[in-house]
Design a protein that fits this description.
Strand 5, helix 5 and strand 6 form a beta-alpha-beta unit. This protein is an alpha/beta fold. The protein has nine helices and seven strands, in the order βαβαβαβαβαβααβαα. It has one domain: NAD(P)-binding Rossmann-like Domain (Rossmann fold), CATH 3.40.50.720. It starts with 9 loop residues before the first strand and ends in a 7-residue tail after the last helix. It is globular and about 50 Å long. A seven-stranded parallel β-sheet has the order 3-2-1-4-5-6-7, sandwiched between helices.
């Protein structure tokens, strides 16, 4: 069992109630980090109880990180403590055709995946750059490389994040004590597809999705090694390579076969 670090190492993990975020928080606590875990659901309190078994200080916050108020609540919950690691993992998915989606639903995807992430990063990163020390992990996706028919807004939001983090990494390259790592999973066995209303799709019912524990470990190891980005799993890496050479129209048609409602195989 890890004990609280005498150096007061502190990590903030968003989207930590389930899935990849839960596993990232578990690894951080096991590695001796005090953690602030945040999610937009009350389940974060139960998750925090699990993290406390590792002996570090765990603070849980329920907040909507699609809003500036939610991000400000996160920042206030740090009580001014230096953030050594930020895992900006909170995200939201959305299936079905764009014309069938409500404005509220696609706005929630954009506000969570893009606006909330950027606002949080812009609030936390300057202090890291100023002291030339800190680590930032942002969860992007291989989906950002693929025009996502029947997931158009989600894939577009991840394309933004994948591109944004690549650009930001260049902007801060002179702060050599600061690392920004982009984690790019493929399909992961989490509640994502249920929450995105994609349980009747081929990708949603695929039994070969990677486990969130494996994806989190890939991301954490890359973060600790100071890598710029990491595709989680060889199949995901292959998808990323293929996406750079295959025409977008072909990729969109391939994605349609996976994500169109009713595409689930019997």
């Amino acid at each position: 069992m890890a004990t609280a670090s005498p150096h007061g190492k502190f990590a903030v993990i968003t989207g930590a109630s389930t899935g990849i975020g839960f596993e990232l928080a578990t690894i951080a606590a096991q590695d001796g980090y005090d953690i602030l875990v945040v999610a937009d659901e009350a389940l974060i309190e139960a998750a925090a109880a699990d993290f406390r078994q590792f002996g570090t200080t765990v603070t849980a916050l329920e907040a909507d990180l699609s809003t500036t108020d939610g991000v400000d609540a996160l920042l206030a919950a740090t009580n001014g403590r230096q953030i050594d690691i930020l895992c900006a993992n909170a995200g939201r998915g959305l299936g079905h055709g764009f014309l069938d989606q409500s404005v509220a639903d696609w706005r929630a995807v954009i506000d969570t995946n893009i606006m909330g992430t950027l606002y949080l990063v812009q609030k936390v990163l300057p202090a890291m750059v100023a002291r030339n020390d800190g680590k930032l992990l942002v969860t992007g996706s291989v989906a950002g490389y693929i025009p996502g028919a029947f997931q158009a807004v989600y894939n577009g939001s991840k394309a933004f994040i994948d591109s944004f983090t690549e650009a930001l990494r260049n902007e801060i390259k002179d702060a050599d004590g600061v690392t920004l790592t982009t984690l790019m999973p493929g399909p992961v066995d989490t509640e994502f597809f249920d929450r995105a209303d994609m349980n009747d799709t081929d990708v949603g019912t695929d039994p070969n999705k990677r486990s969130p524990a494996d994806v989190a470990r890939d991301g954490w190891d890359a973060l600790m090694a100071g890598k710029g980005s990491v595709f989680s799993g060889w199949m995901t890496k292959l998808q990323g390579v293929i996406a750079n050479v295959v025409p977008g129209s072909v990729l969109a048609e391939q994605h349609r076969k996976m994500a169109e409602p009713g595409s689930a195989k019997d």
